[in-house]
Amino acid sequence: MKHDFGIRAGRLTLRPLTVGDGDQVVSLLNDYEVARWLTVVPHPYTLADFNGFLAHLADTSPLGGLAIEEHGQVLGVVGLDPTLGYWLGRAHQGRGVMTEAARALVDWAFTNLEIDQIGSGYFAGNHASRAVLQSLGFRHTGVVEHVNCASQGIDVELIKVELSQSDWALRE
After folding, report:
1. How far is it, in rounded angstroms, from Cα 110 to Cα 150?
2. What's the rounded Cα separation, in Å, for the pair 101 and 8?
3. DSSP letter at 156?
């Protein structure tokens, strides 16, 4: 993927994370109310954690972590690695940002990648994440996994969902 890669999403731009995003990302993720809904994000979250995530992306898929940017400010991250994952800083929640960003990434993926479906999931009790996925057309798979949540230090229920390319094509 080229460094100048970006997806326009209405008021937002999705672009690869860079080292320069570290302070903004750390500030947003070092909030327990954000981190507690994510599987591998520790709390507290440090610049070393962010740099480790960038190294992971360099070894796997740059699509795994795209900055959600508005007016030059990072609001959160959305990725496809290979499942759809995302988080948004608490100050930016409730404005439809994540639905807009995730919709743009899903549309880009089904248009540009040879995939038939996208999987995702949300922690039991995370009503906002469930609402984003439902609004995009994701359906429950009937699978609930117990996964370790690094920030909480406990196993939590992860409700698995998926979206087929054919369902995506039938949306309004």
Report:
1. 31
2. 9
3. E
Residue 50 contacts residue 19 (beta carbons within 8 Å) = no
Tokens of 145: 């996994």
Euclidean distance between the first and final Cα of the chain, in Å? 30
CA-CA-CA-CA torsion sign (75, 86, 104, 81): positive
DSSP per residue, 95-126 = SSHHHHHHHHHHHHHHHHS--SEEEEEEETT-
- State how far the Cα of 49 lies from the Cα of 118, in Å rounded to an integer: 27
The position carrying tokens 């990072």 is: 74
Q: Is the entire prediction scored with pTM above 0.90?
A: yes
Separation CA 123–CA 74 (nearest Å):
24
Per-residue pLDDT of the chain (172 residues), as tens digits, is 334 579 998 899 999 999 999 999 999 999 999 999 999 999 999 999 999 999 999 888 878 899 999 999 999 999 998 899 999 999 999 999 999 999 999 999 999 999 999 999 999 999 999 999 999 999 999 999 999 999 999 999 999 999 999 999 998 6
